[in-house]
Amino acid sequence: MNLQQAGIPGEFHETVEIQGHIMDSLILPKILDCITSGGGSFRIVQVNIGQTRKDPSYASIEVSAASQETLDRILATIGDHGAASVAGHDCHVVLADCDGAFPEGFYSTTNQRTEVRLNGHWIEVDRQEMDCGVAVDVPQGIATCVPMSDVRSGQSFVVGHAGVRVHPAGRHAQARGFEFMNSQVSTEKPKGIATAQVARELARCHRSQQEILVVAGPAVVHTGSGEHLCKLIRGGYVQHLFVGNALATHDIEQALFGTSLGVKLESGNIVEAGHEHHLRAINRIRRLGGIRRAIAQGELTRGIMYDCVQHNVDFLLAGSIRDDGPLPEVITDALEAQREMRRRIQNVSFCLMIATTLHSIAVGNLLPASVGVVCVDINPSTVIKLSDRGSFQTVGLVTDVEPLLRGLVADLQETIG
């Protein structure tokens, strides 16, 4: 690697430093490329490279540009990759002047661990999430990610990138046991090995009593996979379930009528007037006052939603414009659903996303980079969208949901019983 960038240094300079696993994660070359592609130049002041993959590395880089504006733009870009100015600047704070909007020039967060400098001290940002602002309580020394819709006039927000530093996760931390799958999304990866790796991660979280979130779409029911998910729930491998009205509706339809979308799951035959079953299922649950009341009255005796209630699994039903009914438990206000998701994911360590594009992207946007994510979908674009939108820790597995869940249950059979 040529550590000295050729060219005439610019008039404006800033020295930054990066540390951690900057070599094996290719963070250092990425930062150098950002500098040159942004119209600047660099000079490596110091570099110490770790001898093993577990050893951290360190680099000090002088960044130069022809104008302060160009330099600021470069610093903002490389700051998101962990490059922090060595100058002792506190973060710049501005009061929000209206509800529901950040001050102009606000710092836009990533999903990576972030700190801001207040009164000469680095403070970790709480509730890390991408695409938010950082609200600070200067006297208390507290910094928190806040979504745009929750901004209130008079709150203090970080503006610009000065006094902000990001700690990107190293490649070894991103892999979480899925290193062979971390390459480009492909339909040709060995599914059995991949499923076994997911099972090992579920087992690890289960043993250490860490919380597991499952985000699932109605294809879980349509493909006849509902019982596999029920076994995971009964085995203690699901603490949170985020779904929409559709999965819950078709799960209840199956429990009441033995069909999903009017198709008899045991035989694959279309039932006469079966297209009405999902509406009749919703109607019955609404008449009974909700899912929990239907279970308490003995009207709903099996299925995913039944097992969630019986095994104290926290479930959240987020609504959509296309929902029929919906079921009484569905949160129809999208912003309120987001707030509830944020509240419930705070202790999640691992997330399994199954066959749901919109819910996967929505939840992926809320999760910090420290949470391991496996996204399973028959459509490769679902996984690609997650990565493109910043959920870089996502490991993608392109397969149908039924063999995946069946394989997980088989690999975990001893503990599921």
Q: What features would you describe in this structure?
A:
By secondary structure, the protein is an alpha/beta fold. The chain folds into three domains: 1-87, Alpha-Beta Plaits, CATH 3.30.70.2690; 88-168, conserved putative lor/sdh protein from methanococcus maripaludis s2 fold (Beta Barrel); 176-416, Rossmann fold (3-Layer(aba) Sandwich). 34% of the residues lie in helices and 24% in strands. The strands form five sheets. A six-stranded parallel β-sheet has the order 16-13-12-17-18-19, sandwiched between helices. A five-stranded mixed β-sheet has the order 8-9-7-6-11, with no helix packed on it. A hairpin with a 2-residue loop joins strand 14 and strand 15 (263-264). Helix 6 runs parallel beside helix 14 (401-411), helix 7 crosses helix 8 and helix 12 packs parallel to helix 13. The termini are far apart.
Features:
six-stranded parallel β-sheet; Alpha-Beta Plaits; Rossmann fold; elongated; 417 residues; 19 strands; single chain; five-stranded mixed β-sheet; 15 helices; conserved putative lor/sdh protein from methanococcus maripaludis s2 fold; alpha/beta; 3 domains
- How many helices does DSSP assign? 15
Beta-strand content = 15-25%
Give the biggest sheet. Answer: 6 strands, parallel
Q: Helix fraction?
A: 25-40%
Write down the domain tally. 3
Please state the average pLDDT score. 88
CATH homologous superfamily identity of the largest domain: putative lor/sdh protein like domains
Structural class: alpha/beta
Order of strands, widest sheet: 16-13-12-17-18-19
CATH architectural name of the largest domain: 3-Layer(aba) Sandwich
Q: How many whole angstroms does the radius of gyration measure?
A: 24 Å
Care to count the β-strands?
A: 19
* CATH topology (level 3) name of the largest domain: Rossmann fold
